[in-house]
Design a protein that fits this description.
heterodimer, A: 244 residues, Rossmann fold, 6-stranded mixed β-sheet, 3-stranded antiparallel β-sheet, 6 helices, 22% strand, B: alpha+beta, Mth169, Chain: A, 2 helices, 29% helix
């Protein structure tokens, strides 16, 4: 995707009451040459967007369970609708929790084993490259990504985990399991690979000043998937983050 | 008729319960060496208007399934009783 092709891509960054990573996401996506627009949770249409990002934070205060109430925000019907059409949908941290509660992704995120809030850098390994998030990586590639969560302990039925692993629906796993996630799962994809949720924050790993540029690799894959659907050709430009 | 519904949501058997484990670890510090198998849950109480008790039970179960509990990791125990009102 060239810069001009990237300019044809518009990404909806969904904002719930309590989201707090939306501006980071917009800044990074903009630096990669696409349009990124905040979309309030009461919107009912995502017409005109080629990709959707559900950012981190505490949607609806995380009351009841993280993502449990956000799932019923009006915008989520539109997110489900575009996801079914193959539009790339990326959930980061709390966004991952929202996507599981909305049944766009299997499993659930429960409290970290050990009962600790985690604020650290996690080394993650690419398990599958078949998802839209990891299509620009190679299997076994290691990425350094920030984590910042209390409820990131991925949980599902044993048979579900086996199915996910066998079908390439685990894009990333932790090299050292920080939170008790089954199978050291750090990211999960739907069967089609266009919906992915992950607990690490790629948008916070796009500036060398914050310690890693590895997040850019994943976000470029995300945008490339959007570009591929719209018929744009070329590859994502090596758009170095130029922000502060 | 009005019914009081009580929904108790807790971790499914086999699902780790780190909050309960943390509390459990604290108990010996208070001298409670004889307390075990502690679990943590949440209780929701609400009033349902329904024609009869089975209908109220069905409504409470549907509300639990859709919102109050995540069936992937949680169970919901539901009880419904007629609401006694003063006359």
């Amino acid at each position: 995707m060239t810069r001009s092709a990237a300019a044809d891509i518009s990404v909806a960054v969904v904002v719930f009451p309590g989201s707090n990573c939306e501006h980071d996401a917009v800044q990074v996506l903009s630096s990669l040459g696409v349009r990124a627009e905040l979309v309030w949770h009461t919107e009912r249409s995502l017409e005109g967007f080629q990709a959707v990002l559900v950012p981190g934070g505490f949607a609806h205060g995380d009351y009841l369970r993280p993502g449990a109430i956000a799932r019923f925000s009006p915008v989520m019907d539109a997110v489900c609708e575009v996801a079914a059409r193959g539009v790339p949908v990326l959930g980061i941290c709390n966004g991952f929790q929202v996507l599981t509660e909305a049944h766009l992704l299997p499993g659930a995120l429960q409290r970290n084993a050990g009962g600790r809030f985690l604020c650290d850098v996690a080394e993650c390994e690419v398990v599958s490259t078949s998802s839209m998030l990891t299509s620009g990586t190679v299997t076994g590639q290691r990425l350094r990504l920030p984590i910042n969560h209390f409820e990131g302990n991925y949980t599902c039925g044993r048979s579900t985990l086996v199915t996910l692993e066998s079908r390439g629906q685990i894009p990333l796993r932790y090299v050292v399991n920080p939170n008790g996630s089954m199978g050291s799962v750090a990211a999960v994809a739907n069967a089609a690979g266009n919906v992915v949720g992950l607990m690490p924050h790629p948008e916070r790993a796009c500036n060398i000043l914050t310690g890693s540029l590895d997040g850019e690799i994943l976000l470029k894959s995300f945008l490339q998937a959007a570009a591929n659907r719209t018929g744009s050709r070329g590859t994502v430009a090596a758009a170095a983050f130029t922000g502060p | 008729m009005r019914f009081t519904a009580v929904v108790e949501v807790s971790a499914l058997e086999g699902i780790s319960d780190p909050e309960a484990a943390t509390i459990q670890r604290a108990l010996p510090l208070l001298g409670f060496d004889n307390v075990g198998e502690l679990s943590v849950g949440r209780v929701f109480r609400f009033v349902v208007d329904a024609a009869d008790e089975p209908t109220a039970q069905t409504a409470a179960a549907e509300l639990s399934r859709r919102l109050l509990a995540n069936p992937v990791i949680q169970r919901a125990d539901i009880s419904v009783t007629p609401l006694e009102t003063s006359t």
